[in-house]
């Protein structure tokens, strides 16, 4: 069993980043499939969801990662 030298905030930031990137990858697949299959009425809905929810969550995640890196470097 190995011990981790990372702070809990850094581990939380890494886990949040992982799931945020997975969600973005899922949206990319949905966008590619909907445009490839000709379902163009879904594209504005995906754009709206990206703009409304994922952009602010990305900014919050960026602030969380920045805070975790600063606190880790001060430690």
Question: Your description of this structure?
Answer:
This protein has 75 residues and is mainly α. The chain has one domain. Helix content is 81%, strand content 0%. The protein is built from two helices and no strands. The chain has helices at residues 8-36, 43-74. Helix 1 (8-36) packs antiparallel against helix 2. The protein is elongated, with a radius of gyration of 17 Å. It starts with 7 loop residues before the first helix and ends with a helix. The mean pLDDT is 87.
Short structural description:
Helix content is 81%, strand content 0%. With 75 residues, the chain is an all-alpha fold. The radius of gyration is 17 Å and the shape is elongated.
Please name the defining characteristics of this protein:
single chain; 75 residues; mainly alpha; 2 helices; 81% helix
- Report Rg: 17 Å
For the record, the count of structural domains works out to: 1
The tally of beta strands, per DSSP, is: 0
Helix-and-strand structural type:
mainly alpha
Strand content: under 5%
The tally of helices reads 2
Assembly type of the shown chains? single chain
Distance N terminus to C terminus?
24 Å
Shape: elongated
Low-confidence stretches: none
What is the average of the pLDDT values? 87
What can be said about the biggest beta sheet? none
Spell the H/E element sequence: HH
Fraction of residues in helix: over 70%
Q: How are the SSEs placed, and which strands pair?
A:
Blueprint: H1 8-36, H2 43-74
């Amino acid at each position: 069993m190995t011990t981790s030298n990372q702070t809990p905030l850094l581990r939380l930031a890494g886990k949040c980043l992982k799931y945020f990137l997975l969600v973005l990858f899922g949206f990319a697949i949905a966008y590619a499939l909907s445009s490839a299959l000709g379902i163009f009425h879904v594209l504005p809905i995906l754009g709206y969801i990206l703009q409304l929810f994922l952009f602010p969550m990305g900014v919050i995640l960026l602030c969380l990662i920045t805070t975790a890196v600063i606190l880790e470097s001060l430690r």
